[in-house]
Design goal:
5-stranded antiparallel beta sheet, 18 strands
Length: 582
């Protein structure tokens, strides 16, 4: 009923205030406090020894890459000898538990300890180092570790490979559960488990990376919807959204999840799927992995290799940053946009654009590079591919062009360049200048076709060399999400629909605060696994209207916030600190 007159308004606002007050009482707020180093709650050496004994210390724990042509086995830190994970710590065997003995930061120009090598992960910000690193081999081991953490009120941090950009694999003085050794691969090619997917499914351990998954898939005339980077882990990629070379036709990672086994906050091992613990299943399909528990296996859809295999096209264009060269870039990006937006969902690709300084006077101080790679499901003789290839005219001759056929996707993966992780906080925020992380936005077809995205990219690229911080800074365009016509879009996911209906996932590294607004003006949604570290309205940018439901599910399964990670779903009433309170 509409309220008229001053008295009515006063009564209305008085009633509103009382309602808000009662609502606040019904949802108590709290800031989770965890045990800190050497406090009375801190585990004794005897208790750590008991934990170690419970984790089958005699069992083999080797994390080693055997070199080409074998698949990669985990993330590889920069400058690691022989491209081994953990700087080679796992080559001859790992301990079940590593204990931190002091509060010194890792990788601070001194020789790293065994503990630091066991805890190595990508760009850990804010000196949030664990107190313990645990290497489980089974779901039972994970249950033991979770119960140990709960008993001592330790924050739990989880990683399969440690590739995360957003520090979600970190919390101060916590228990770090590393699932890299859990390598189960179990194919169900005939869908005997009844998930209803004609090409079957595969159950994968949480230590599996895409290189391993695609190698095993090739042996079964299959492939799986995966990311571009070969050492990214299956679990984190899938639960965070999962964009990649097959998403437009086979779905994002979230669309491909069929079942998850997970240890939750009370130490219980649950199986979750569309009919069993279905609320948690929905949450895991886009709500990110680390805040819900420790995943012990994930079952995803398998896809039969396409007739004719796969075709990969790589094209590079180069020109100066003189006036003529800039006009070439403007023309090229306009033509690329028209070409890319006309592709069907059997294509998926990426584009990298950057500028590099040069002393050559004919280049006006710098030159730009436009590199694109597109994957087509089918052969070079397929009429659909021929039509797209013949229309690949961007108004200038390419610097390089290659077209490569692959019978199986692992044939491409096996020789793919490594994307190493960096154990120092290279993406950390710079107060007053840089928000940290890697800014991202999902860009709709309408905005892409308007030219606004490339206008921003060209503005940044052409600031080199007069502003050196923009030189060799790559603008990344991923034409690999599910905004294509006829792309699969499973409704039973918690991923923000605004992200998944975009055409381009645009990643803009090292974006200063002053440029954040023009980045976010391109779209309202960001990608959970690749985004700015400091981001206002992160709940809405990641999950939109789904966040309230996610909070309810978090409150049901982990009301005391046993699992905490940065900018992750929190229980109702939790006060979100910048860092875990210890």
């Amino acid at each position: 009923r509409r309220v008229h007159g001053g008295r009515g308004k006063n009564e209305f606002f008085g009633m509103l205030v009382r309602c808000l007050f009662l609502a606040a009482l019904s949802t108590p707020t709290f800031a989770k406090t965890y045990c800190a180093f050497l406090e009375s709650c801190w585990p004794t050496s005897s208790e750590v020894a008991t934990l170690t004994a419970a984790l089958d210390p005699q069992a083999t724990r080797v994390l080693k890459w055997d070199g080409l042509p074998h698949p990669r086995v985990s993330a590889v830190p920069v400058l690691s000898p022989d491209d081994q994970p953990l700087y080679g710590l796992g080559v001859y065997g790992l301990k079940p538990v590593y204990t931190r003995l002091d509060q010194q930061p890792c990788f601070n120009n001194s020789q790293p300890t065994e503990f630091c090598l066991a805890a190595v992960r990508n760009s850990p910000y804010e000196d949030w180092n664990p107190g313990f690193v645990v290497w489980p081999l089974t779901a039972s081991h994970i249950q033991t570790a979770v119960k140990f953490a709960v008993k001592h009120n330790l924050c739990i941090m989880v990683a399969g490979t440690g590739h995360d950009f957003m520090n979600r694999h970190s919390c101060k003085d916590g228990l770090f559960i590393r699932t890299s050794l859990m390598k189960e691969i179990n194919w169900d090619l005939n869908d005997e488990r009844g998930f209803g997917h004609a090409d079957g499914n595969v159950k994968l351990g949480p230590g599996i990376v895409w290189s391993e998954a695609q190698a095993s898939a090739a042996q079964n005339n299959r492939f799986v919807s995966s990311g571009w980077a070969i050492t990214v882990g299956v679990v984190g990629w899938s639960t965070g959204g999962g964009h990649g070379p097959f998403a437009p036709s086979k779905g994002l990672g979230v669309d491909n999840i069929l079942e998850v086994d997970i240890v939750i906050a009370n130490g219980t091992l649950l199986t979750v799927n569309a009919t069993q613990n279905s609320d948690l299943f929905w949450a895991l399909r886009g709500g990110g992995g680390s805040t819900w528990g420790v995943i012990t296996s994930i079952t995803v859809r398998a896809h039969a290799n396409p007739t004719g295999g796969f075709t990969q096209t790589e094209v590079t264009y180069v020109s100066s940053l003189c006036e003529t060269g800039v006009k070439q870039l403007q023309n090229l990006t306009a033509r690329y946009t028209s070409w890319a937006m006309a592709l069907n969902n059997r294509f998926s690709g990426l584009v990298f654009v950057y500028a590099s300084p040069s002393a050559d006077p004919g280049l006006c101080g710098a030159y730009w590079v436009f590199y694109m790679k597109y994957v087509f499901q089918g052969s070079m003789s397929d009429p659909v591919y021929i039509q797209a290839s013949e229309s690949l005219d961007f108004g200038m001759d390419p610097y390089a062009l290659t077209q490569t056929p692959f019978n199986a996707w692992f044939d491409e993966v096996v020789n793919q360049a490594l994307e190493p992780i960096n154990p120092t906080n290279v993406y950390k925020p710079v107060p007053g200048y840089y928000a940290g992380g890697i800014g991202s936005v999902s860009v709709s077809r309408q905005v892409v076709e308007s030219g606004k995205m490339f206008e921003r990219i060209i503005r940044r690229v052409t600031r080199c060399p007069s502003q050196p911080q923009y030189c060799n800074l790559t603008e990344e365009i991923y034409h690999d999400i599910t905004g294509y016509i006829d792309s699969p879009q499973d409704a039973n996911v918690s991923l923000n629909n605004g992200f998944r209906t975009g055409m381009i996932h645009y990643v803009s590294a090292a974006t200063p605060y002053e440029e954040i607004s023009d980045l976010y003006a391109l779209g309202n949604n960001s990608y959970f696994s690749e985004s700015a570290y400091e981001m206002d309205s992160w709940q809405t940018r990641y999950w939109g209207d789904n966040y309230a439901k996610l909070q309810n599910i978090k409150s049901a399964y982990d009301p005391n916030e046993v699992f905490w990670c940065y900018h992750c779903v929190q229980p109702r009433g939790a006060l979100r600190p910048r860092s875990p309170v210890v």
